[in-house]
Specification:
Chain A: It comes from Loxia curvirostra. The complex is a heterodimer of chains A (333) and B (134). With 333 residues, chain A is mainly alpha-helical. Chain A is built from 14 helices and 4 strands. Classes of the chains: A mainly alpha (333), B alpha+beta (134).
């Protein structure tokens, strides 16, 4: 995971800070634009937000540890007592928690536009530009000097795309290619979405791009839009991308489909967490004020939210009715 | 390498230089920027590799060069000399000031191009005028 920057380091829980490898105190010029850490609006990285998103992600061990395509080996059986089995399950849950840590959600990075020197004398001598990379081993990639000498003599800092390419050439990272695969072009993404491989696309995207690059953000938004259009929320449940998707939908107030899906699957707790998050993000909306005044819980919260905020009121009411009938019959029987 | 009449025998001189070592294949050069004893062969055993330069432009029209500035500074601090192409490259990179021969070479090129253009312009004028005159 790439480095985040100075903002919000103190607010992060320890496990996130360690895993995202945040540097101690780097102030990037781009961070001035990331106003999400400002006081009124809660950020993606807040402790409270992260706990709610993590609860919603769910922990289906069978999905997290589903078999990946690896080399063929005969299965390995162990004979365990009950206590050992519990211990093994506990360890599996710990591992699953690390697998479910959410990738960062950042604003798009500002383009680099810095001229270091202008030497008009060099005009016309060269036909191609020179790209110089500093190969010192102990510098973080974000601070590496990568400069370009253009044929017209101007010495400027390299753009973000040139930087990413050069760093991948000299310090190759696994899973990343120098030229991004054609999969990430808009026309090809549709094909992959039809095969329901959203999670694979997102994993490849995380490996290939930096979290604040425009391509990363574009691919993620495209994926979330497609999931929301077809209602395939369950594809991402119990993966590390679920939190990001929920955050995206919340900021654009497109939570109806997700709410219906949760109620249909009898995940009332998740539905209430969703609405709590909605109120945290948009405290000025009417349902937020009502909820705060009356301190609503559970199904009442959902009902108030549905009345005031949602577009697909009818569907949600139907789903709620079905749920309540199911609860009534199951408690009666 | 240390026979009686060997070039590398100690006690006779030799200093560290930072220069280009040529590698690659036919019609495909590739330079490694290298700190080596001055009396070694150009492509022979070196002390440390400090970078590389690909003189042919890639698909994006760039000539890629990598320089390990930290180690370069170390060797320069140890008293290494630079070869002229290495100095020119570092001048282009901005690590050192622009080499005066780069500037001179650019001016010479410009003057040569101007001289080539003028004789073309003069006969062209000379051949055009009688045409317009008559």
């Amino acid at each position: 995971m790439a480095a985040l920057g100075a903002r919000g380091t103190a607010a992060l829980p320890v496990r996130l800070r360690a895993l995202w490898a945040l540097p101690a105190r780097r102030a990037l010029a781009a961070d001035a634009g990331e106003g999400k850490a400002a006081q009124p609006k809660p950020a993606f990285t807040d402790e409270a937000v992260q706990t709610l998103l993590y609860k919603m992600t769910g922990l289906d061990l069978h999905k997290v540890f589903r078999p990946e395509k690896k080399g063929l080996k005969p299965p390995h059986y162990k004979l365990m007592t009950e206590a050992q089995l519990e211990e093994a399950t506990r360890k599996a849950i710990e591992e699953a928690k690390t697998k479910l840590i959410m990738p960062p959600v950042l604003n798009e990075r500002e383009p680099i536009d810095d001229v270091l020197a202008e030497d008009k004398v060099l005009e016309g001598t060269e036909t191609a530009k020179y790209v110089f990379t500093d190969l010192s081993y102990s510098i973080p990639h974000r601070e590496r000097f990568i400069v370009v000498r253009e044929p017209n003599g101007v010495l400027r800092k390299a753009t973000w795309e040139e930087r990413d390419r050069m760093i991948q050439i000299f310090f190759p990272k696994e899973g990343r290619r120098v030229v991004p695969p054609t999969l990430f072009k808009d026309e090809n993404l549709g094909t992959v979405f039809q095969q329901d491989r959203h999670e694979d696309v997102l994993n490849m995207c995380i490996a290939q791009f930096e979290p604040d690059s425009p391509d990363y953000i574009r691919v993620h938004h495209r994926t979330y839009e497609d999931i929301e259009k077809h209602g395939k929320y369950d594809l991402l449940r119990s993966t590390r991308h679920f939190g990001g998707m929920v955050w995206y939908l919340l900021s654009r107030k497109k939570t109806d489909g997700l709410l219906i899906d949760m109620i249909n699957r009898d995940l009332l707790d998740d539905a209430t967490s969703l609405i709590t998050l909605y109120h945290m993000l948009h405290p000025e909306c009417q349902s937020a004020k009502e909820a705060k005044e009356q301190k609503l819980q559970g199904v009442d919260l959902i009902k108030v939210f549905v009345k005031t905020e949602s577009q697909r009121e009818g569907y949600i009411q139907l789903a709620l009715q079905a749920y309540e009938e199911a609860m009534a019959t199951s408690s009666a029987s | 390498a240390l026979s009686a009449g060997s070039r590398l025998l100690r006690g006779r001189g030799g200093h560290v230089v930072i220069r280009f070592a040529l590698g690659g294949c036919t019609n495909r050069p590739f330079f490694r920027i290298v700190a080596a004893n001055s009396r070694r062969a150009r492509d022979g055993k070196y002390l440390e590799q400090l970078g590389c330069l690909d003189p042919l432009p890639n698909a994006h029209g760039e000539k890629v060069a990598g320089l390990n500035l930290e180690r370069l500074r170390y060797w320069l601090g140890c008293g290494a000399q630079l070869s002229r192409p290495a100095e020119k490259l570092l001048g282009l990179a901005g690590f050192l000031p622009l080499h005066p021969m780069t500037v001179t070479g650019a001016e010479r090129l410009r003057r040569r191009r101007q001289r080539e253009q003028q004789p073309q312009a003069a006969p062209a004028d000379g051949s055009a005028e009688p045409g317009t005159g008559t």
